Amino acid sequence: MRGAVRLVLVAGVAAALAGCSIPSWMPLIGKAKGPPPGAPPPSEVRAPLLSRPALPPDAEAVMDRVICVVNSDAVTLYELDEAEAYYLYENKLPRPSEGEERAKLRERILASIIEKRLQIQQAEREKLTVEDAEMSERMGEIQKRLGATTSAEFEEMIKAQGLVIEAVKKRIREQLLVERMIRRKVSLRVSVTEEEIDRYLIANREKLETGLAFEASGEDGWTAARRRADEIYSRVLAGEDFGDLAREYSEDAGTAKNGGRLGVLKRGELAPDIETAVLRLSPGEHSPPFRSQVGYHLFELDSKETLAGEQLAQARNQIRDILYKQKYETRLQEWLTEIRGKAIIEMRL
Question: Which of 175, 271, 280, 349 could anchor a disulfide with 67, C-beta 3.0 to 4.6 Å?
């Protein structure tokens, strides 16, 4: 097989679902161990927008104002403000100015809070629990990722972000509950069959083979009148050597001396109409006269890479991941729509 295979496929989702990572709400990923030179001491370090400012006497009541009730659970204004701060911090975005832009952002964030609350409620109804060992393992993973060598150092890093360790543990426990709930309601109900992979492969084979090599003769060869092209094609079919005829009759001086050979080509290197005509052929097959903008051509396909062996196995695995992700997203949205439809959600914002 000539050439390397380059498959441009969406990375599969199955591997990401199987792993554990720092929760998306943790504004700590990538932090170096200890403050950088010139930074304030840890007691003064705060993640942007994560700490409550000095509040007037009645501000606590405002911050804790209930803005939404999800079944029997209240969502407060402070929870929305906190979630917005985390979102902006994680995505390195400035706080949008007051107005329609910020209102839309907060609307999306509130919808995410409601979605998560519904999943946790469902997990509690089905009596799902998180074992202490699971909590310890996840906390240990986060501690290791952050570069903290001891629990005390880890807690100091948490405090430096304006958080408390108990709040972090609560969020991690909720995340583990949601993950377990999604496995039960979504992941375990999604599968991809070999027949589905076969159908996808047939429908998308041309795209999957992009980058594979082929070797042909005759491009720009025999740029001639149709009558001459037909005559030469008849001689090819009668068994005369394609290369000899190319050397004698081809009007492309660059390829004629080499028997019309174009050499090894990657898909996409020829004009699309010419490449389509060439790739319709099987190795050793000749094309009938083909007309392009510059005249008539005859082609002989010497060899063509196709998906086979290890390349085919790799393609099938990538297809499996694509189909799994599609099915997973569809099933997840169906389930979320189902539990939202059964919920009583009262907006007070």
Answer: 349
